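Data card: per-record layout.
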Amino acid sequence: MGFGALLRRWRKAAGKTQATAAKCLGVSERTYRKIERGATPPRLTHAQCESLASLLNLDRDERHALFLYNIGTNLGSKSGQPELQQAIRLLIDRQLPSPAYVCDRYWNILAFNTAMAEWWPFVMEPGANLIRWALTVSEARVQYQDWDKHASAYVKMLKFAQATNPNDMELRQLIEDVKKDPDARHVWDTEHDMGETRDGHVFRMNVPALDWETVEVVSHVLYPASMPDSRFVVITWVEGGEDDEHDALGGARNAWAATTTSQDDVAVAQRHAQNRADEDAATRWRREAALASRVVVATSEEAAAQAGANRIPLPALSSVLGPEVQLTLSLDRRTVVWAVEEATGCWAVTHVSPATVITRVPKSALRGPCLPETHHLVRAALPAEPEAATRRIQQLLEERDSEQRVLREVLDAMHPSPEVSDSLRTAEAP
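The structure for this 430-residue chain is written out next.
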């Protein structure tokens, strides 16, 4: 059945005349008759589809079909965030331990699970947008390996969206915001291809929540039937099967090991294994479904109560991370309740690790009232047992000392004169 025949059936079922339907669309009756006969390809606008759907009293599926025939997608959702179905939220949470999120057509983050918040905390910020973060925020350039290649991929997506929705004002504003960044503008000016999504892309990232461990992940992009304008994205960690020579996607397994593994790397891996064993009790909550879900409550007091009776409010750090953010440390669970006021009477609550908050706080803010709150976070991020915590602190101090030693050696190589090096060190000292 073509669109004309479908339209005729809807009109007759609603008891409307061709003249009434033509007036609703703002076209002549002759033109409307041609549409019903199929002689004129339908090119109804969004406004015309909305008006016709109301006139003919179309149900959800009929309305969906109307938009698909004319625009290519279901544009039935109102402007702003589409309604997030509980089933979608459940699906997101069930992806754990894989990070997962839902974004709208402009890449605004609508929902996410705990793993996503742990790996990429920017999603918890009010108005979080994947494209803006990836192309304009400095931390994205650290987390993505070969950032320029990722930037090209996102610019291709923007250009694809622009080509398919040239008059979309919100999309146009997003593009203009991105182009204000000089590096992103350069990518925009030099990248001439287009790409719809990052579905199936395999890439490497440096993840702060994993102690900056480099992981290889695959991006899976799907479109929920109930929210066809939105994208449901799952990030899976690439893992191999039983074949010792190839990874899960057919590439050479651990090819990087041939050129990077050393005795120092082995020692680091052993330390990480010991750390994971020490911190198991502190991170066991991640495997508990009750704490894995993101919840929504009505007040800030209810949000803080999610941290339990033995809790510590973190008002100073909360103010640093945003006006709508409220952080509360749960000493019993050794987690932080990160609450964001998304709307009046709507606080979204996510449980994250203390380390996630620490990585988000600018170093310049670690003074005054933020300092004692940071002390609480650091202690909660360490193993509960004092001996294990002491061992972990010693390891971290050794790593920092090594980093500073390398920086001093580079500084000395750049300025071999002892007087110059000493003056630079003095100037850079806190």
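Known properties of this structure: The CA atoms of residues 1 and 194 lie 34 Å apart. The chain has 22 helices and ten strands.

See the next section for split statistics.
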